[in-house]
Amino acid sequence: MSAMARRMRFQVSKPVLAGREKEYVMDALDSGWISGSGGYVERFEKAVSEFLGCDGGVAVVNGTAALHLALLALGARPGTKVIVPAFTYVACPNAVRYCGAQPVFADCDPFTWNVTRQAVEACLSPRTAGVLLVHLFGLPADVASIAELCRERGLWLLEDCAQSLGARQNHLPTGRFGDMAAFSFYGNKVASSGEGGMVFARDPAMRPLLRELRNQGLSSAQHHWHGVIGFNYRMSNLLAAIGCAQMEMIDHHIRERRRIASRYISRLQPLQASGTIRLPVEPPGCDRIFWLFGFVLETGSRHTKDRIRDRLLQEYGIQTRPFYVPMHRLPMYAQDGAFPNAEFLGDHGIVLPTYSGLSSEEIDEISDAVAGIIQEELACG
């Protein structure tokens, strides 16, 4: 065990397997179906579909694969442009590039951390084919308004709901607004299958294509007939078994994240009142799920942020994460344009431990350590 692992008392995230995960995995093992076939895959698709009130979920190997298949089915191709947040995870522009299309970055709102309709509208061009909208940190983006804009301009809308399973805007779950939606069930998500993803299409006619594309383009009507170039994106029955157990407890995990976030906000509110940090928001009409809890330093530099993070780990065993490096700062996506909000968030954001079962006493301990170190670092300049 490394020295860092021995020091670490609180991880940023960890899956909580408190349901029937082991029972279902053993059942899948006993059945002999451990790969891309087996009853748990279809059962998992049905569970997520019912939770969202959608039809036809297509399980895949991970959330990036879900984005890739959705973009292909929507028609992203060389010569087209897709609007993507500048502040997001790198899988989003990567999936656009997999299709040969060009990602065009839109800056985010400094308080919600998501892109807005105005930011999307400023990026439109004659070659724009659609918008890949991300609901970051469990907060629904300005999705109803952006969906309206896409309809007005004849563009498609793909919702990246990797971080927002169960979040709602105007009582409607994220994933229900766009032409397609992609979800992730990676180990740090609210519901996790270890690895895994799912894609939904509003148009039922597109769902058979998604199923063919995830399975090497294999026709459902004729064995060994591949009518299109496809991919090996199938989800295994073992992962789906874990996912089924996680979906049985999804409401519990969502409540836990909200409890944890509420406690953090209560404890860290004095720092926000003094203008030292910026806490996450929940605009009217939005029900967020707090995938991970983060805050933004209002002052200092990214070096200040790094020192705070290092001290939290070294002195208290508290693991943290920085916010995303804005996409336009990555060498393969460097492009002209001003993205001041994305840059500020990338330089000043810190993510704290967020997982089911974190006790109130532990949250208080983490919050007190954060407050103390921030005040010391800023006092030192």
Q: What is this structure's SSE topology?
A:
Elements: H1 3-7, H2 21-31, H3 39-52, E1 58-60, H4 63-74, E2 81-85, H5 91-98, E3 102-106, H6 117-121, E4 128-134, H7 143-153, E5 156-160, E6 168-169, E7 172-173, E8 180-184, E9 197-201, H8 207-214, H9 237-248, H10 250-273, E10 277-278, E11 286-287, E12 293-297, H11 302-316, E13 321-322, H12 340-348, E14 349-352, H13 360-380
Helix pairs in contact: 2-9, 3-9, 4-5, 4-8, 10-13, 11-13
Notes on the protein architecture:
The chain has 381 residues and is α/β, with parallel strands linked by helices. The protein folds into two domains: 21-248, Aspartate Aminotransferase, domain 2; 250-380, Aspartate Aminotransferase, domain 1 (Alpha-Beta Complex), CATH 3.90.1150.10. Helix content is 41%, strand content 14%. It contains 13 helices and 14 strands. It has helices at residues 3-7, 21-31, 39-52, 63-74, 91-98, 117-121, 143-153, 207-214, 237-248, 250-273, 302-316, 340-348, 360-380; strands spanning 58-60, 81-85, 102-106, 128-134, 156-160, 168-169, 172-173, 180-184, 197-201, 277-278, 286-287, 293-297, 321-322, 349-352. Strands 1-9-8-5-4-2-3 form a seven-stranded mixed beta sheet, with helices on both faces. It has a four-stranded antiparallel beta sheet with strand order 10-12-14-13. A three-stranded antiparallel beta sheet has the order 7-6-11, with no helix packed on it. α5 (91-98) links the parallel β2 (81-85) and β3 (102-106). α2 packs antiparallel against α9, α4 (63-74) crosses α5 and α4 crosses α8 (207-214). The longest helix has 24 residues, at 250-273. The mean pLDDT is 95.
